[in-house]
Specification:
Strand order of the largest sheet: 4-3-2-1-5
Order of helices and strands: HEHEHEEE
Strand content: 15-25%
Number of helices: 3
Structural class: alpha+beta
Oligomer: single chain
Distance between the termini: 39 Å
Radius of gyration: 14 Å
Number of strands: 5
Largest sheet: 5 strands, antiparallel
């Protein structure tokens, strides 16, 4: 049985068992720019996301989240935000609580920007 806390997950396999099918907090950790192709994802930072499934990855599932981050092999998940927007997110962007946020709140979406639908 999977643990109930990300902090207690010792392996990627434990993390996957806990994360998939549940709602978590999301914080975007890439290019914070309105012109970015991922601007839409940035605008969804600090919102709840339902993790739907694992996306193909090169991660060693025996490694911890911290070890995978240091190795540059995160687990990628497909997630859906409450407004229906779906996107791939990385494991370090999936958080248990708002307390884990370290980036500022994103700005409002600019209509017609590259990352906008």
């Amino acid at each position: 049985m999977a643990t109930e806390s990300l902090a207690n997950c010792r392996t990627g396999a434990d993390e996957i068992a806990l994360i998939v099918g549940r709602e978590w907090w999301f914080e975007y950790h890439c290019s914070e720019d309105h012109r970015s192709q991922d601007a839409q994802l940035w605008y969804h930072s600090h919102q709840k996301i339902l993790i739907l499934r694992v996306v193909e990855h090169d991660a060693d599932l025996a490694m911890s989240r911290e070890d995978r981050a240091g190795n540059g092999t995160p687990i990628a998940y497909q997630g859906r935000f409450r407004d229906g927007y779906e996107h791939t997110v990385l494991d370090d962007e999936v958080l248990e609580s708002r307390k884990g946020f370290y980036r500022p709140d994103p700005p409002k979406m600019i209509a017609g920007g590259p990352g906008c639908r």
